Structure formats: structure tokens, C-alpha cells
Amino acid sequence: xxxxxxxxxxxxxxxxxxxxxxxxxxxxxxxxxxxxxxxxxxxxxxxxxxxxxxxxxxxxxxxxxxxxxxxxxxxxxxxxxxxxxxxxxxxxxxxxxxxxxxxxxxxxxxxxxxxxxxxxxxxxxxxxxxxxxxxxxxxxxxxxxxxxxxxxxxxxxxxxxxxxxxxxxxxxxxxxxxxxxxxxxxxxxxxxxxxxxxxxxxxxxxxxxxxxxxxxxxxxxxxxxxxxxxxxxxxxxxxxxxxxxxxxxxxxxxxxxxxxxxxxxxxxxxxxxxxxxxxxxxxxxxxxxxxxxxxxxxxxxxxxxxxxxxxxxxxxxxxxxxxxxxxxxxxxxxxxxx
Length: 338
Hints:
Blueprint: E1 6-18, E2 30-42, E3 46-50, H1 57-64, E4 72-77, E5 80-81, H2 87-96, E6 97-100, H3 114-124, H4 130-143, H5 160-172, E7 178-182, H6 190-207, E8 210-215, H7 218-224, E9 227-232, E10 235-241, H8 242-247, H9 252-259, H10 269-272, E11 314-317, E12 320-322, H11 334-337
Parallel strand pairs: 3-8, 3-9, 6-7, 7-8
Antiparallel strand pairs: 1-2, 1-4, 4-5, 9-10, 10-12, 11-12
Helix pairs in contact: 3-4, 3-5, 4-5, 5-6
């Protein structure tokens, strides 16, 4: 049952991709891109999905939006079952959910002016008259830090940061409830990243926006998110609020990710704690039978079922969940015990 404060609810989401057969007699192989992901997103908050490339972050988002079809599971947006909506209802839903893509260079049509790009969602959803749309586009340009007279310029005439501001304005045009931010600053340099992130925070406060924020950068996630989900090979390995996760990570994978966050500490303690994971993630076509992180985990122990039994996502402290055999019921992580 959804509470009034929950905007998005995802239940046991699975998205698998069958691969083409090498020859007619070959067995069908399937990529388990997202494998049983569940979470809730509260109105006005930011939920972060973090993990290495290929962990399933973007596939989760695209499955929620039905830009790719999920294999199983359920998604509820404001109480509506997204996977069972007809095309007309789905069109109305997409007015309330917008997305900011990773690459501001490829996500803008080079044949349209910046003003046309921002106005396009308004035209598609038949919002306002031509004059009202023109006024709203000018207002959106000002809100994202662009001059209204830049509406007539084409995407190639803007810098990367300016292009992403156009993407933000386009996402904001229909006054959505939820904006999916799919690595929105990863293609930008650090100084411009901070400007875009602060712009997103400012807009969230002004319009009570809800963000599903995807990133591989833990520093960005720490700056933006209220709650964080750590994904590894299509599964949730840890979920917690920002303070709990950064103060006391429980899963060894989260611990390794946090060790890579740059620090200004001058005593070198941070550099001594840097964790280097050995090897690459297992294949999502044929994941290991136990914990999917076991082949790279410095604490994996056959006696703890790490290699034979998949760990369940269990709540250790209020709101802090982890999927790890080696974490004790009172919250002692294997890296703490070591």
C-alpha cells in the first residue's frame, strides 16, 4: 500500500535482455541487467542510484519510464500502475515525468534552435497558446541561467554546460513531478558540474521536485541525494540515507566505492584506506550462484555461504539495508571487524 507521501514505488523490477543466438542450435543467453530491484521514492526528495558502469542504474530508470520494456515486476507512480497504462494514459504520465540525459551534445537536436527544443514538450502535450508557450520558454531560459535572447541560437553555439542548462529547461517545461537525472554532469568538467548540481538543487526547492538521480560518482551522490541505493550487477547491495551510508557503510562494495572519494585530509589517512578491488564484475549473463560480489570481495568466506547462497537484503538499522552474509545483525561490517 502506497502512502500519500510516496510518489514512486518499484516492486521486484527485473529487466532481462536475450542475446542473439550464435547459431540456430545454440542455447539462448540472457543478460540479467536488473534483477529484483525494489524501492520507494518520497515526494520532494532525491534518491540516488550509484554503482559502476554496467550495474543496471540506467536500465532501472528506462524501465520505470517504459522507454524499454521490463521483464517483470511493477512500478507505481502516484498510485498508478505504470506497466498497465494504455498509450493515452502513458502520454499523460510522461508529462509528469521528465528525464535529463547524460550527454548534452547528443541529446539536443542540432536542427532545432534552443528555444524550439525547450518549447517542444509544451507543443507535444498541447500546453498553452503559442504566445503563452513563448513567454514560458523565455521564463525557463532565465530560470536556468540563460539569456532569453539565446533562444534563437543552435546547440553547436553553446558550451557543454549551457547545453545541459537547455536540457534542464526542457525537462522543467511541463512542470513535472519527477525528473530522472541520468548522469547529468558526468560529461562536464568539475567547475561546471557544481553549477549544474546547484541549479538542480535550487529548482527542486522552488518547485518541490522529486529526483531519481543516477551517477557513478559518490561525491556527486553525497552532494545531491537524501537516500542512496548502491547497485552491483543488477541487484541492490545497500540502501540507506546519505548520513548513514557515508558515515558507516556496511557492504564491502560500498566501502570500496567510498574509499575512492577524494579527500582534502593532509595526514594521508584517506590514501592509506584506499581499497583496490581485484578483477572485473562477473558476467551478467552467468552471475555466480552466491553473492555476486564474492569474486572481488576481500572478505568472502565459503563458510558464510558467500559463494553458494545469494544474500537477502535485510534491514540492520532503521532505514539502513544491506545484502551481505558477513554483516552481523548488530551492524558490524566485515571491514570494521578486520
